[in-house]
Amino acid sequence: QEEKKQLTLKVEELERKLESASAQNIEFLQVIAKREESIHQCQLRLEEKSRECSSLARQLEMAIEDAKRQVEQARERAVSRERAAQSKMLDLETQLSRNKTELNQLRRSKEDAERRYESRLQDLRDRLEQSESTNRSMQNYVQFLKSSYDNVF
């Protein structure tokens, strides 16, 4: 009976240990369930963040491509404007050269015209002087004739 009593006490103690272990096991299972739920939530958030990162990466790639396209277009416009400016500058230089040539020709023409004018003017002065000289000679002759006729009559 003593042995039975001790065995009963041992059984009761083992049952308490078993209950304690079962309670602890239930707590562990609850903790595990909570951790698994937490892990599941973290995985869902990770998947969502991964999708968001992929979307942002695609948007970034699109933005980079767009920026590259805009840079290329701006470069092409700048090259085009530079070519147009060079062409315009070449046209202006050609026009300037033509204008300088024309100006030089006009200067020479003016100088030639001035020389001809001066020569013509000098000719006219000489002829005027000759004409005046002839006129004076004729007036002197007329005076002489008048005085001769007065003396004769």
TrEMBL record:
It is found in: Cell projection, Cilium, Flagellum; Cytoplasm, Cytoskeleton, Microtubule organizing center, Centrosome, Centriole; Cytoplasm, Cytoskeleton, Spindle pole. Its main location: other. Keywords: Cell projection, Cilium, Coiled coil, Cytoplasm, Cytoskeleton, Developmental protein, Differentiation, Flagellum, Microtubule, Spermatogenesis. InterPro entries: Odf2-rel. Residues 94-106 have a biased composition (Polar residues). GO terms for cellular component: centriole; centrosome; microtubule; motile cilium; spindle pole. GO terms for biological process: cell differentiation; regulation of cilium assembly; spermatogenesis. Residues 75-118 are annotated as: Disordered. Signal peptide: none annotated. Residues 75-85, 108-118 have a biased composition (Basic and acidic residues). Belongs to the ODF2 family. This is Outer dense fiber protein 2. It comes from Oreocharis arfaki. The lineage of its organism: Eukaryota, Metazoa, Chordata, Craniata, Vertebrata.
